[in-house]
């Protein structure tokens, strides 16, 4: 079954709703973003989360040493890297990694084969901030045969309405949502529940 990552969480009640309804991963954004949290805030939010739910930290071009420091402090289970991080840099991170790539005009920007030990996240090109624009990339234009579906995460403009089609097309390891479960830039409990239900049904 496809796993669910709810990203950009800043409030305990949203985390509790996501966890209670079957989210597999919770994302804390440490890079510049309207959803940014500090390591201290994430540490408090992460308290009492069940071990079965993975805590993911989202970083953009952060040093491996700083990622390791924050990962130990929160603590994080996975580091998600959205910048130009090299395979050598990711190798210095002491927890499992997700490497994010933008998809533009049916092409992945960058070489996913250079990161065989990371989960691979595909997203639409960034808008104001690195780390996603809330837009859908062109699913049809992307050649699926070369994608490592067993470690593939699909992101970018997902919501309860289109996530079943994303799962059907990519058969990914996980799907990742942030703005698609928001109303007026705030996480919406009903949308979180709906999204998770749609994934579980797909």
UniProtKB/TrEMBL annotation:
Catalytic activity: N-(5-phospho-beta-D-ribosyl)anthranilate = 1-(2-carboxyphenylamino)-1-deoxy-D-ribulose 5-phosphate
Molecular-function annotations in GO: phosphoribosylanthranilate isomerase activity
Domain (N-(5'phosphoribosyl) anthranilate isomerase (PRAI)): residue spans on this chain: 4-198
Enzyme Commission numbers on file: 5.3.1.24
GO terms under biological process: L-tryptophan biosynthetic process
HAMAP family cross-referenced by the UniProt entry: PRAI
NCBIfam families (alphabetical): PRK01222.1-7
The protein's name in its UniProt record: N-(5'-phosphoribosyl)anthranilate isomerase
Organism annotation: Listeria weihenstephanensis
Chain's gene name: trpF
């Amino acid at each position: 079954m496809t796993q669910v990552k709810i990203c950009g969480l800043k409030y305990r009640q949203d985390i509790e709703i996501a966890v209670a309804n079957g989210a597999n991963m919770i994302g804390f954004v440490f890079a510049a973003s309207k959803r940014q949290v500090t390591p201290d805030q994430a540490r408090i939010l992460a308290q009492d989360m069940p071990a079965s739910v993975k805590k993911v930290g989202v970083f953009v071009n952060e040093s491996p040493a700083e990622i390791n420091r924050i990962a130990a402090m929160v603590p994080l289970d996975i580091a998600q890297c959205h910048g130009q991080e090299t395979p050598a840099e990711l190798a210095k991170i002491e927890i499992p990694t997700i490497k994010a790539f933008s998809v533009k005009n049916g092409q992945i920007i960058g070489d996913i084969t250079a990161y065989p030990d990371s989960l691979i996240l595909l997203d639409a090109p960034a808008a104001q901030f690195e780390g996603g624009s809330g837009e859908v990339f062109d699913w049809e234009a992307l050649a699926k045969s070369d994608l490592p579906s067993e470690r593939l995460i699909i992101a970018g403009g997902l919501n309860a309405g289109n996530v079943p089609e994303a799962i059907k097309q990519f058969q990914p390891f996980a799907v990742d949502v942030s703005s698609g479960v928001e109303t007026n830039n705030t996480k919406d409990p009903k949308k979180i529940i709906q999204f998770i239900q749609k994934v579980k049904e797909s």
